From TrEMBL:
It comes from Akanthomyces muscarius. Pfam families: Rhodanese. This is Rhodanese domain-containing protein. Residues 54-75 are annotated as: Disordered. GO terms for cellular component: mitochondrion. It comes from the Eukaryota. GO terms for molecular function: thiosulfate-cyanide sulfurtransferase activity. InterPro entries: Rhodanese-like_dom (IPR001763), Rhodanese-like_dom_sf (IPR036873).
Amino acid sequence: MASGRAVSSAVRSAATIRSATWGHAASGQRCAAAAVLPASRAFTTAVLTRVSAASPTASRRGALPPPSSSAARWYSADPSPTKLWSFDEIQKQLQTNEDKNVVFVDVREPVELRETGKIPGAINMPMTTAVQSLHVPEDEFEEMHGYPRPGKDKTLVFYCKAGIRAKSAAGLALHAGWTSVGEYRGSWLDWAEHNGPVEKVSGGK
């Protein structure tokens, strides 16, 4: 009997040792798996990030390229471009009258012309009346301004104080049918800065 109990006790001890050993082994495997898993995920994330950054599909989903210059020109609001005149070109035209079709048009208000004068020979067509002036019959234009309206075969060169009203008037003239239109972008401020010749204005025209 004592011998049987000893054998049974030895068997239980061996089973306990095996169970503990397996438990430690399994625990070690789980720990190893837990240690490996984050590194594996980190590696996968890094690889996916690099692939996504280099993917042509990602590039195609980015911002669209800017429109070409030809497309911008195609959708331009102006029916045709205007010539930009400089101080030297205007002064040369005044001195030589090289192009007899050129007419300088001051679109400032009459009170502005009386205060500063105007470019010699320029006609005054205030911007506030420009739309009407460019479309009314010629006899009505002459009644409004006191001089004949330049024909559509003439080159109209517009100026104002700083170039803003001149640009608008040039666009109106193009739409009204004049095909040769220019702008003096520097306008009166540039003319005065360069000490250009001045014609005094005493009346309202």
